[in-house]
Amino acid sequence: MRLMRMPNGVPGTTGSYFDWLQDEINRLFDPEAAELGPGLLDRPAAPRVDIVEYEDRFELLCDLPGVDENDIELTIAANVLTLKGEKKAPVSEERREKGCKLYRDEIWYGNFQRTISLPQGVDSENVGATSKNGVLTVSVPKRDEAKQRRIEIKSS
Amino acid sequence: MATQELEKTATVRPVGTIWEEGGVIYLRLEMPGVDKSDLDVRIEDDQLVIHGKRSDLPKDAHNVVRERRRGDFRQVYTVDDTVDREKIEANLESGVLLVTLHLKEAVKPRRIEIKAG
Asked: Could you tell me which residues are beta bridge partners of residue B101?
């Protein structure tokens, strides 16, 4: 715990303290700031994903621009999907030494790993993955019993 | 893209790497989910305008996890006179755009011959 200067507010009121508290809490849940710190299972270099639920399947979309398909390893074990791989530096160390002038480098590279727990009722035998325009799409079908069904109502 | 339309479009700045190698400036921008047909690279006066539309973003109604940024990729660079505007190339491959900007011959360092008098 570090000491923090409290904001100056209107004397005799606590209004500004609530504003300050609000900002602190907002910052705590800010996804931009959260990326800086490692999560329980995620490494700092965890690629961003979206997971979308469809009637018959879940789809996981992951941004991996410039990553070769052969450098991506996708495994599934007991409903836990692991995405592992390596993102190579666009300008290698070797080239940097050979008189290549680097002006700006904003990307992260190195090894990455992401572990995602899938919900119950998925068919882990039939997982499919495709890659297009630097986006990896993993399709995880639902098992028949997990699919939504419409129940016919019979009139008696 | 028309200004009015642009005002209504959410854009994010693509992350990039810029380097110079042998008199050529390379601009590498990460634009995942952008198809070649949705990418627009143009020179407008002194500006290099790069705009890539994302078409892979799912509709938010069923999203369980939503971490990827929403919006088109857009970045504007100012190009000065040292760059040869006739020789700008752009190549998009697996979500990575590589723009090649050639420096004009006049700005490249050259050795001046010294003549013995």
From this structure: B25
